[in-house]
Task: structure prediction
Amino acid sequence: MHLRSRHPIRTFVAGLLALLPLAATLALLVWTARILSSWLGPDSLVGSLLTRLGLGLTGSDAAGYALGVLLLALGVYLFGLLVETELQRGLARAFDAVMQKIPVVRTVYDVAQKLVALVGPGKRDGMPTMKPVWLHFGGPPAPGEPAASTVVLGLLSTPVPVLIGGQAFHGVLVPTAPVPVGGGLMYVPAHWVVPADVGMEALTSIYVSMGVTSGQYLETMKK
Result:
């Protein structure tokens, strides 16, 4: 088919669909940059502390902020070296003991610890990380029967179900596209949840691309 014979609207839609993954990626990067700027930028509370930290060695606010960020990164790196040694275990236990003695702080600290453990690469204190699951609304089909309900790819918050009205429910976090860091938490009957044989990278890619990359991680129909 010649280029002139192509319908302009169809050509425009084809170009738009091709640009959607790039647009979604840029939107996610911009959103992340704005969040980091509001938390760590020069005008934020942390940014002002970093600027004051660097002003002791320079007279410029911008140079002081940059130097403060550099000193903070160096401190994080040194702490990372400490984490990889046996000495970190004793310090972590001592730090946890101190945090547990502060009434209000210990609640926030416990929640932060659990969230880090859920999304971390391994386990901490026996707590497993989040796992991708298929959420079958109405329950999964019987073996050999076609699915008759909507299926959603989500994250199982914990493998241990909770009892609501005497029935077992799982907490499943359903992300949003194209920004998967948002979403909603749903408590659904435990038999609705089926493990998904995909990793976190696949789940993130599928949501960020709004399903465009599904064929890279999920089995597709043969033509």
Q: What stands out?
A: The longest strand covers residues 167-175. The chain has three domains: 3-40, 45-119, 131-216. DSSP finds seven helices and six strands in the chain.
